[in-house]
Amino acid sequence: MVKVTELIVLHTTKFGENSLVVHSLSKEYGRRGFVVRGVGKKSAMSLFQPLSILEADITESSKSTLYTARNLSLKHHLSGIRENMFKNSMTMFMAEVLYRAVKDGAHEEGLFEWCEKSILTLDAIRSDFSNFHIRFLLEFAMALGFTPQAKALIPFAEAHYPIIERFMKESFAESMLIPLSGAVRNEIAEEILRYIEFHTDSALNVNSLKVLRELFA
User: Fold this and answer.
1) Cα 214 to Cα 90: distance, rounded to the nearest angstrom
2) What tens digit of pLDDT does each residue of 4-54 get?
3) Which domains does the chain have, with CATH numbers?
4) Residue 198's Cα: distance from chain center in Å?
5) Burial readout 200-215 (b: 16 or more C-beta within 10 A, e: otherwise)
6) 52, 86, 103, 203: least surrounded by Cβ within 10 Å?
């Protein structure tokens, strides 16, 4: 059985000589890995950058839990992200958070649609996006169903409660303009990650936050 599906790439794992398991989000399958065979050329690997949005033919199997993805193509080229080192680093962070926080096999209603919207927003925004990952983390918690009130984050971020409250009350455009030092921005990101860890009962250990810490210092 073959289904045409849209996938958001979160992570890849080498599988054999020239194949990958692409860990992804999709409407139909939620968080799931798919085998992609015949991957070797650099041009092919460019499809699997963090948060690439792909269209693919999925072949289901009654004999294996690993389904196969074929005929992959980019749904969106995301040139606004791929041509910007800072945005690319942000997608690495976002993809790692999604990969570690959403359990394999989970199917959160609306998560794919929210994630796609977030990626396209980052792609389109031209400036003042240094706060984007903070807004992303707060909206991610809501997409998972936590719907945090600012006060719920006090045990994790008491010192930064007034700033987090601003992020939750102001519009997206206004929240991008909240003045923050690199150090404070990173502390807030770490605090919200601890909040998400608490509610997902998992240790996220998001390594790519270190890259953002250096780029947006």
Assistant:
1) 12
2) 899 999 999 988 778 899 999 999 999 999 999 887 665 567 889 999 999
3) 2-74 (2.40.50.140), 79-215 (no CATH)
4) 18
5) beeebebebbebbbee
6) 203
Report the run of H or E that residue 150 belongs to, with start and end: none
Token pair for 200:
């997902």
Q: How do residues 128-174 score in pLDDT, each as one tens digit?
A: 999 999 999 999 998 888 876 778 888 998 889 899 999 999 999 99
Q: How many CB atoms lie within 10 A of CB 148?
A: 17
Place of tokens 């794919």: 112
Place of tokens 């807030």: 188
Containing H/E element for 70?
Answer: strand 67-74
- As a whole number of Å, the end-to-end CA separation of the chain is 49
Whether pTM > 0.85 for this model: the answer is: yes
Task: State the Cα torsion 164-167-169-171 to the nearest 10°.
Answer: 180
**5 and 55 in contact (C-beta within 8 Å)?**
yes
